[in-house]
Amino acid sequence: MTPPTTNIPNTPATLNDSLFVDEDVISGIQAGEFGILDGPAYITSHLMLRAAVEIAIGWTPLKGMFGLDCVGGQSVVYLTLKDTPSSRTRRLVGLLGQLDIQEGSNEAQLLKDNLIICDANAFMAGGLEALPVDPENPPRLIIIDDVAHFVPNLDFNDPSAVGDFLRTVCAEASRHGAALLLVRSNPPERGGSLIEDTARRIWTVTHPEQAEAPYLPPSELELVGIVSSIKSNDPAVEEPLWFGMNSVDLAIDQPEKTIKAGA
């Protein structure tokens, strides 16, 4: 496979100590970018669940942002690596209370129609076709949230299984033109380091001072070259490492942006 000839500069991530989804996060999602948010488990997970809700219902603060008409009807797949229904419900109900979304309201109906929360087993069984996704309304965003314990049927002690999972999600995101966000917040004892190491192997780490990002295997993902800082355990590495991404002529004329990570 021939690498794309267009190179988009790597854009560093910056830390965001707010629980609110800001312009940089939303613009990155709407542009179909790939991002990794790193932070304390609950806070980062909460941030991305809020992003999913706001995009799915077209929350008022987002309307008109960056020329986007956020009026709802933009489906979001929130993919958990095993999460109990009660845990998801508690987080979502708490979030809806903060956003003052009332049962039976237009916002509640939009959320019901457009926010699809599922676990990794259902996704791996058949991609987006296995989920209640409207083919006329492909997802704007796919979120991988590794905050929860991993599903028994998916061996996340096996790097090849993790790699297969990440490749499958990437392929689905590319096929549907969706943005992809990986919430990487688990500690090593819960698989966080394996997720990170596997992602780094699949997507190739490059230093921000390198002239060009390496080509991204295994498929030509139509994702803009946004990268996120990764903490390095190597004392010789003074600057953070970055995920190097490529693009296939998507949003070439857009200004460089910084996508912020959850604190």
Automatic annotation (TrEMBL):
Xref: InterPro entries: P-loop_NTPase
Gene3D superfamilies: P-loop containing nucleotide triphosphate hydrolases
Domain of life from the UniProt record: Bacteria
Protein name per Swiss-Prot or TrEMBL: AAA domain-containing protein
Native source organism of the sequence: Luteolibacter yonseiensis
